[in-house]
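Appendix B. Raw example, untouched.
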Amino acid sequence: MSSIIDMAVPLLVAVAVLIGGGVLATTRDVSAALPALLDLLLAAGLLRLGATSTWQTIGSAAVVVLIRRIVSFGIATSHRSRNTDGRRSVNRPRAR
């Protein structure tokens, strides 16, 4: 079972990069691509954590969670500040 997980983790990381890049290429919106990438990297870290729970794997999963939280906060703050300037949000269609 551990060897299957050891093979699945790098595959999931590669899929995360491909999906994150695909989302960025199609939407041209970093605020959509980064959460997709970081969620899949978190899944890879948790999968690895389930196979071998050493302090190093626990620490790497915690770092990914911390980065995810900081990036999400930064994106949310950026969107709020753009919306208070009177400019419309990127994701919201214009009212007709």
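End of appendix B.
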